[in-house]
Amino acid sequence: MAVQRISEFDLWKPDYPLALVYIYVGGTTTLASVFTDVGLTAAAANPQTLETQTVAGVSYGKWAVPLYTNDDYELDINSGDQTGVKHLPLVTLDAENASDAVVTTTGGSASRAVDDHFADVINAEDYGAIGASSSTNTATINSAIGIAAANGGGDVLLPAGTIPITTLSLSVGVRLIGKGRAVTTLTSSEAQSVITISGDRAGLGKLTLDGLTLVGSSVGLFSKANDEVYLDDVLIKRFDVGMHYKGGRRCTWGSLSISNCAVGAKLHGDDDAGGGADGDDWRNNSWEGGNVDLCTTTGIELSFEDRLCLGNDFLNVGIQNNTGTAVKINGARYTVFRNCFWFGNTTSLAVLNDSDTDNIALNTIIGLTIAGGTFEDGAVTFQDTCQDVIFDSVEIKDVDFTLTTPDNNIIFKNCTEDTDVTISGNGEKFIRIRDVHEGIFSGQTTDAVATKVWALELAPGAVVIAQARVTSTQVNGIGRSARHIQCGAYRPGSTLDYDNQTANFTVGDVITGGTSGATARIQADSDSGATGTLTLRSVDGTFENNETITDVAGGSALVNGTITDIDVALVPAPNESLGTDYETTAGFAAAWVANGGEFEFQVTGAASETHDFLGEVEILVND
Known about the structure:
The chain is built from two helices and 62 strands. It is mostly beta strands.
């Protein structure tokens, strides 16, 4: 409760000796309640007669004790003098209207009305009730959207909790922002588009959009020909279609996840010929972070419908446990997936041209790059044009590739594959390339000591053939040389002793360590009954002494010791010249050599001679 002190006669005032003072409720003729304590427990008389004293011929008046009231008040003195109304101080806004009160932000310098400050942020709850009623919630949010739209765009803030709605439309620049993806959830069971993007730069942030029961024909988010659509920290789940875009450009999404839909995201270049012919290309869009999982038909569908689907980029997106096709690329061009991870999908990736043969200049597969990341489990299929399809530095495990007459090679550059990878169909177009298998080297020799200029560690069981072209020019003389040298090498499989065999191993099968999880493929088995020695290639991990090893066919034994690696060996008749060696001095030589586990190329100079050399190597490895 607000209390104020009646301070007019706290101090001696001249000309008011023994004055009779009435204390009225401000603006009335009702006597105010007056007290002698701030707690308003000790009532005082009203009216009051002032005390008096005379000093130097002047008489003064003053309250006998301090006085307090919880009313606005005014004074009437000797039935002749009146004061103005003195209002209670503002200590609470309960039942008050302070819209026009002026405030200054801490640290600010300009004062503004309270209602102007509140209007800086559009909270949906300021425009109506938000509760259990979907129609009421929709009306409330639409009112807030209308305010933001009238401002040319802005954020509409939603409270925490589950908010049932029917459908909403977001105009230019209007964004619905919740308290966090795990905090604010919009739900709707409408068999249509629940949220429609109706203008550029509109979108969602910090919320979940939930279709509840995968209602047929339901679409979580729909947009047609809108650019720079905003999605950040958003989860869309349990719709027939999570998102459907008929064109759009320069969208940048962060931490966007889609879960448990029939189709997760339709990202289409689509003119929408049957719906106004006002769609657009789907191009130059970026999706960073988040996850797409549990979709039963398609997770992400990049498609030329009748407009370009071009230049779209995905970064650090997880694509997991989809029972349909996780990613379908239908006639899309120059698509990039960077450090994305595919795991547990039935079909991880399907790449094909669009079926419209009248638009082959626009809808054939050209440019698909998978850079970094992981593919684990599931099928990957390629067909049709497949021009410039490149997997670069991707870890590939237990993936079944099918190449159905692709027009071009599928390039796998610097990728790793485990022993469970299979390739069917036109496997001759599955092309592996490694940067370490070729390169240019240069340097200088000043003595007759062999110098390693290029080397490759060979895996157990690997076979290679290599060639090198090397030239030299003598710095302190007129000597020069040019050579072209070919050489083959191999590294025998590593050996692993075993004992306590309970079932024979099968050559060609993969063994797995029961404790370590290490794997390797059996090249040979020297079986002496309960004991023996396996020769292994494609070794992944480290087998542990006395752990159980088993193969696919049921072979089983205990490891006896540790694996033994065998050194690299050159094939018979190594270092064959692929032409006539040219040299004007014997002071420079070059050769392929085996050195432990490495296959190396070395150059050798001569004493007292300085040679600048420049060379290039190419190597083909089967490991």
